[in-house]
Design a protein that fits this description.
By secondary structure, the protein is of the alpha/beta class. The chain has 15 helices and 13 strands. The protein has 2 domains: 8-222, Rossmann fold (3-Layer(aba) Sandwich); 236-454, Rossmann fold (3-Layer(aba) Sandwich), CATH 3.40.50.720. Strand 7, helix 7 and strand 8 (218-221) form a beta-alpha-beta unit.
Length: 455
């Protein structure tokens, strides 16, 4: 009697069992593509859990620093990296042919918006094609980059299958949205539950086992598209609520009411209220961008995302509101026009205590103020020089000035954009003629001088 040949599903199951055993034994080799604010902490975490981890990046400066045990991200110190490199658990490379050696490959590349505010998946697509060139049977590939529902199956999967291999049979594909909060000391990568959606049960089980070995908890989703939708929902929730308090700020200011006082009182209610705080505009790589990924995808189904887009309009308008408040304050308090005025912006990062300036409203404010004829300097204790960016390339290389008595006295107005903890706000209060505070820093520092205007 002829021996039956193994069916394709059985072959996939056998490969999955082999990989699952390597993960369970802590021997699976993990490759992380993209060594930024998401990829670097993830690679470190896997290495700390005992897995041999290799970070891949096209930026040779990043890979060289990691190979030397050094860091380039403030909240991930070199003292965390160096022992992992010395122990041989963490390495870095720009040689993508080494992807073939990996058992699991995690994609953590940027997903920006185009100038037309449409999804730019060029980094994801190029990375998927590169993986496809080196893909071998039995590997697990996980996309972590924030994107619209359908990307894993519509963009990544075809690129990986282009050379004849099949997801679920020859390799395994999943999506698990990154949930990094840079600078959050309470919730590092290991302490944040991971949502996971797999292209089939084998892929789901493998991705769950991989992340279960590294993070506090995993949450299975029914599909990659569902997991992709989870990420967008989280950030749209924040975007909409921030837009709400930004609008309330404008309304209450017209009524002579302090919105921060209102929020602080409202949050004493033990149910039915969650505090969000206004600001000068949205920043970072998620909240200003992710909602537009869903609005773009929704058009494919003929659906208008009016609520989401309204929130985007409100948040995008906040830098203009801040500039208008500054113009009025200079006129009323100093009898001075904005044109020719010296403005010192305090804080360039998009959020406090990090060295990340992606999508920072400070950059937009610098451009707006200089377009109106102001002379602008900035101080940031963490970002000493403006890094190159796609939206503000002309600002690259501009350097932070000292926050000293001379510079405070020279400025016609100080505009607080980022509330770094290390800044001496009382010194600003004592030395500045006029302060526009977009973060309520001065009140929190106990300064109630008449030179402060909340914006």
């Amino acid at each position: 009697m002829a021996t039956k040949r193994k069916s394709r599903p059985a072959a996939g199951a056998e490969l999955a069992r082999t990989l699952a055993a390597r993960i369970a034994a802590g021997r699976a080799r993990i490759g992380v593509i993209g060594l930024g604010y998401v990829g670097l902490p993830l690679a470190c975490l896997f290495a700390e859990k005992g897995f041999p981890a290799t970070g891949f990046d096209i930026d040779l400066q990043k890979t060289a620093k990691l190979a030397a045990g050094r860091s380039y991200i403030r909240h991930i110190p070199g003292r965390r990296i160096a022992p992992l490199v010395k122990a041989g658990k963490l390495s870095a490379s720009s040689d993508f042919s080494r992807l073939k050696q990996m058992d699991a490959i995690v994609i953590c590349v940027p997903t920006p918006l185009s100038r037309q505010r449409e999804p730019d998946l060029s980094f994801v697509a190029a990375t998927a094609r590169e993986i496809g060139r080196h893909l071998r049977r039995g590997q697990l590939v996980v996309l972590e980059s924030s994107t619209y529902p359908g990307t894993t199956e519509e963009v990544v999967k075809p690129a990986l299958e282009a050379r004849g291999m099949q997801s679920g049979r020859d390799f395994f594909l999943a999506y698990s949205p990154e949930r990094e909060d840079p600078g959050n000391e309470q919730f590092g990568t290991a302490a944040i539950p991971k949502v996971v959606g797999g292209d089939g049960k084998l892929a789901l089980d493998l991705a769950l086992s991989l992340y279960n070995a590294a993070v506090v908890k995993t949450v299975p989703a029914s599909s990659p598209a569902t997991a992709e939708a989870v990420k967008l929902t989280e950030n749209i929730f924040r975007s909409v609520n921030i837009a709400l308090v930004n609008e309330l700020k404008v309304i209450f200011d017209a009524m002579g009411i302090d919105v921060w006082e209102v929020i602080d009182a409202a949050k004493t209610k033990p149910f039915g209220f969650m505090p969000f705080y206004p600001g000068p505009g949205l920043g970072g790589h998620c909240i200003p961008i992710d909602p537009f990924y869903l609005t773009w995808k929704a058009r494919e189904f003929g659906i208008a995302t009016r609520f989401i887009e309204l929130a985007g309009e409100i948040n995008t308008a906040m830098p203009r509101y801040v500039v208008d408040r500054l113009i009025a304050a200079l006129n009323e308090r100093a009898g001075k026009a904005l044109k020719g005025a010296r403005i010192l912006i305090v804080g360039l990062a998009y959020k406090k205590n990090v060295d990340d300036m992606r999508e920072s409203p400070a950059l937009t404010l610098i451009d707006m103020l200089e377009a109106l004829g102001a002379r602008v300097d900035y101080h940031d204790p963490i970002i000493t020089a403006v890094k190159p960016s796609r939206e503000h390339p002309h600002l690259a290389g501009r350097r932070s000035v000292a926050l000293n008595a001379a510079n405070l006295k020279r400025a016609d107005a100080v505009l607080i954009v980022t509330d770094h903890d290390s800044i001496d706000y009382r010194a600003i209060g004592k030395g500045a003629k006029l302060i526009l505070d977009t973060r309520n820093c001065m009140a929190r520092a106990g300064w109630r001088g008449r030179n402060v205007i909340k914006a």
